[in-house]
Amino acid sequence: MLGPVCPLLIRPAFSASVAIGALFNSALYGTIDCLASSLQVGRDLSAQAAGLALLPLAATVALAGASSGRLALGAGVLNTSRQIGGALGVALTGGIVTASATATLRVPMLIVACAYVVAVLLARSIPPTTGR
Q1: How many domains does the chain divide into?
Q2: Within a domain: residue 87?
Q3: Tens-digit pLDDT profile for residues 63-91
Q4: Which of 3, 26, 98, 117 is disulfide-compatible with 89, CB 3.0–4.6 A?
């Protein structure tokens, strides 16, 4: 038995949506992690001060995340892909910032920008639907 998710994954629009969600969250949470590290290392802020500086951004992300998702099964798959994408983004960009002695944001932000560009191009490639 393939389960209820498999028929959804063979639909190009759904698969693209899952990939877009993962890419977008990878870039978003990677950005937040890079900014926090940069504020602490580059600007000598404490962890608490850096967190407070990023609070408006984090609140906006939380509100946007609370309003997304429509169908239970599809939303569950999409939410999982977004969580995995976010974890990968933090791991990738955080690893680059940590490895850099000067805590420069050029390379991590270039990776983030590329992820956004790929997500937009993927979204534009989805053919429009005309009903159900």
Answers
A1: 1
A2: yes
A3: 766 655 444 445 666 677 777 777 777 77
A4: 26
The rounded distance, in Å, linking the Cα atoms of 132 and 106 is 44
Does 2 fall in a domain? Answer: no
CA-atom Rg of the chain in angstroms: 17
Residue 45: inside a domain: yes
Residue 32 lies in a domain: yes
Rounded Cα gap, residues 14 and 78, in angstroms: 9
Hey, which of 10-14, 45-49, 108-112 has the most confident mean pLDDT?
A: 45-49
Q: How far apart are the first and last CA of the chain?
A: 25
* Count helices and strands in the chain by DSSP H and E runs: 6, 0
Enclosing domain of residue 77: 12-124
Which residues, at least 6 apart from 34, have a Cβ–Cβ distance to it below 8 Å?
Answer: 93, 94, 97, 105, 108, 109, 112
